[in-house]
Amino acid sequence: MILIEAIIQPIRLSTVRAALEQAGFGETMTGDATGYGRQRGQVATFRGNEYRIDLLRKVILSLVVHDDDVDEVIAIIRAAAKTGAAGEIGDGKIFTIPVTDAITIG
Fold first, then answer.
1. Is 19 helix (H, G, I), strand (E, B) or coil?
2. Distance (Å, whole) CA 65 – CA 69
3. Which sequence spans correspond to the domains of the chain?
4. Were 20 and a residue from 25, 55, 82, 85 both cysteine, which residue would form a disulfide, CB within 3.0 to 4.6 Å?
């Protein structure tokens, strides 16, 4: 089994979750995150003054899938998380992590 963690823009969360559910991968966890990658934050203007926002809001979407489903899930997330036709800097990252065991509590 593989743990897939996708760091995506918050505005794309509902689209990504809907696409995963439609494909039969509805069991997901989400969490809030802040950070930056290549875009190094953003410059915003408030009441005529510019200021830098270093840490941008992101969402972490996590799900555990069978090894055979990894490529399909990654393709679904990539297609649904893009903000432009070709994707944009800041759309996110996907990580895959091997899971050696899963234990149910209770």
1. helix
2. 6
3. 2-98
4. 25
